[in-house]
Structures are given as structure tokens and as C-alpha cells.
Automatic annotation (TrEMBL):
Family: Belongs to the UPF0702 family.
Superkingdom to which the source organism belongs: Bacteria
Pfam families membership: DUF421, YetF_N
Organism in which the protein naturally occurs: Clostridium felsineum
Name the record gives this protein: Uncharacterized protein
Length: 221
């Protein structure tokens, strides 16, 4: 019961400040964010199971770490120099098919790392790369040489239908009214489409999505 009590408190404090700090922790994980994430997680874990640690002191520590992270995030928005010092700056690794070894050495980045990340981008020959930049989050951004790029519809003079996202209309038997409004449809339209497919009970519809070309995709039980 004590562990349950401590875990619940730690969980919700951690959840609260994760939401406050935003999604950058997941989407743009720099070295600094990585260290903060590990430290805050370790504090929460220790507070959950170690009875020698005061759970409220641990939660206060999470508050301090989270607050400092927020303050630094706000300051770095206004100071480019501080942002580069904390998060580091992008490094040019390949320029016109040639590896810049001094930048690799600066980033402590070896050829094995480079080749692996190039393969992840479907690039198997360094000479095919126009520019490759090592981002602060450790990912490699790659621009292939023009002659090595895949031909696009524009290159071939082909007109392609406008792309877009599938709009969710029904989810688990429930009509998503706000989504209907976005596509200028109403419930009558939904029931008409269900009737056309001999679906009598909307509760049997797990998912109904509307494609950009106005085709519908249905998953039933």
C-alpha cells in the first residue's frame, strides 16, 4: 500500500510536468533533453519504491528540474548563442560527396555511424550525397545529388490528385460530429452511406474514414 501510494503521487506529478514541458522531449531529443529526461525519470522511480526517500521531496525535485528546463527553453528562444551552446549546432558531415572528417571528429561520429544512418535513408553510396548534416538530436539529414533523386510527378509532367489526410467520421460506433463539420457533411450523409453498404447498426462500425477523393473506408466488427 505504501508503494502504491508513493507510485500514484510520483506518476501524476511526472505526468503533469511532462505535459507542461511539451512534446519536444519526444520529437527533438537533444543531449540536454536526454539528460533531463533520464534524471527526472530516475527521481520518480526512486520516489516510488525507496522508502528512505521522502516522496514529497522527490516530487519537489521533479518540480525544480522541470521548472529549470522550462526557463532554459524560454531563454534559448531569445538567445541563439545560448541555444547553440546547450543544444549544439548542426554539423556538415558530407559536402558534394566528400566526407568532412574534422566535423565527424568534432561530433565523435565514426564511419560506422555515418554508413548506418545513410542506409536508413536508403543511401548506399557516399558519392550519391550532395549534403549530409548531423542535427543536434543525432539524426542525419541527407540531400541526394539531383541526378540520384527519385523522379517526381512534376518531373514527369503527370498531374496527380491532391493528397490529404483521411478524416475519421465514425470511431467505435460513435459519430465524430466535429470531424463531420470539417468535411461539410451531416449525420444523414453518414447513415445514407451505411445503408448503401447494408449496415443497419452503427454500433457494428469500428471505423469509417473519408478519403480526400470522397471515397469512404469502413471497418466493421
Amino acid at each position: 500500500m505504501i508503494i502504491l501510494y508513493r507510485s500514484v503521487i510520483s506518476y501524476f506529478v511526472l505526468l503533469l510536468f511532462t505535459r507542461i514541458m511539451g512534446k519536444k522531449q519526444l520529437s527533438q531529443l537533444t543531449y540536454f533533453d536526454y539528460i533531463v529526461g533520464i534524471t527526472v525519470g530516475s527521481i520518480a522511480a526512486a520516489a516510488s519504491v525507496d522508502r528512505h526517500i521522502d516522496v514529497f521531496e522527490s516530487c519537489f525535485s521533479i518540480v525544480v528540474w522541470s521548472t529549470l528546463t522550462l526557463i532554459i527553453s524560454i531563454v534559448t528562444l531569445k538567445s541563439i548563442k545560448l541555444r547553440l551552446w546547450i543544444d549544439s549546432e548542426p554539423l556538415l558531415i558530407i559536402d558534394k560527396g566528400k566526407v568532412i572528417y574534422k566535423n565527424m571528429k568534432k561530433a565523435k561520429y565514426n564511419m560506422g555511424d555515418l554508413l548506418m544512418q545513410l542506409r536508413n535513408k536508403d543511401v548506399f553510396y557516399i558519392k550519391d550525397v550532395e549534403v549530409a548534416v548531423l542535427e543536434p538530436d543525432g539524426k542525419l539529414s541527407v540531400l541526394k545529388k539531383a541526378e540520384k533523386e527519385t523522379a517526381t510527378c512534376e518531373d514527369l509532367g503527370i498531374k496527380k490528385p491532391k493528397a490529404g489526410m483521411m478524416e475519421e467520421i465514425i470511431l467505435d460506433g460513435n459519430i465524430l460530429v466535429n470531424h463531420l463539420k470539417r468535411v461539410n457533411k451531416d449525420k444523414a450523409w453518414v447513415f445514407k452511406k451505411l445503408k448503401e453498404r447494408n449496415i443497419k447498426d452503427i454500433k457494428n462500425v469500428v471505423f469509417l474514414g473519408l478519403m480526400p477523393d470522397n471515397e469512404i473506408y469502413i471497418v466493421t466488427k
